[in-house]
Amino acid sequence: MAEGLTRSAARNIFYGGSLFFFLLFTALTVHSHWYMVNDSTDSAGLTESVKHGKEVWEENMCINCHTILGEGAYFAPELSNVWERYGGHESPEAARSGIEAWIRAQPLDIPGRRQMPAYDLSDEEMQSLIDFFEWTDGINAQDWPPHSAG
Ligand code: HEC
């Protein structure tokens, strides 16, 4: 009998292993897609304004400093739960005006504190952006971020 692995055993492990993991990753990909479409995403609340808010978010490159759902740069706070942080679950109107006031008040010019630039957003862009934050907060992100400060 040959020492160690035979050629055909090594080949079977290679093909069998490749097939096994290919099928496993395919199944996980299908599951992730299924979960996003049917479970985690509020498709009914996905209005034109929410979509426009995402465009405002992208056009102004807020992601260069912020993360949303963990994606982006780690210079500034996570914003997927900014709606919750401003009390949107208890009082949506107060959260709406609080977030707008914060964005309009920039830059704060407090020495030694990280700064956020000023953005000249129209009212319509601002409301869409906040709709986008509210909608994003409703995504079931399995307790991400791990604490409310983001
Ligand atoms: C150059 C980096 C930078 C960019 C770009 C930027 N921000 Fe910020 N943002 C910050 C920093 C830094 C803070 C926190 C500042 C502080 O705590 O004083 C902040 C805070 C915020 C907050 C308050 C978060 C909280 O929990 O209090 C909101 C809302 C926000 N940014 C929205 C935006 C939006 C919307 C855009 C794009 C239009 C944007 N930011 C682009 C740096 C940035």
TrEMBL record:
<keyword id="KW-0479">Metal-binding</keyword>
<dbReference type="Pfam" id="PF00034">
    <property type="entry name" value="Cytochrom_C"/>
</dbReference>
<feature type="transmembrane region" description="Helical">
    <location>
        <begin position="12"/>
        <end position="36"/>
    </location>
</feature>
<keyword id="KW-1133">Transmembrane helix</keyword>
<keyword id="KW-0408">Iron</keyword>
<dbReference type="InterPro" id="IPR009056">
    <property type="entry name" value="Cyt_c-like_dom"/>
</dbReference>
<protein>
    <submittedName>
        <fullName>Cytochrome c</fullName>
    </submittedName>
</protein>
<keyword id="KW-0812">Transmembrane</keyword>
<dbReference type="InterPro" id="IPR036909">
    <property type="entry name" value="Cyt_c-like_dom_sf"/>
</dbReference>
<keyword id="KW-0472">Membrane</keyword>
<keyword id="KW-0349">Heme</keyword>
<feature type="domain" description="Cytochrome c">
    <location>
        <begin position="48"/>
        <end position="137"/>
    </location>
</feature>
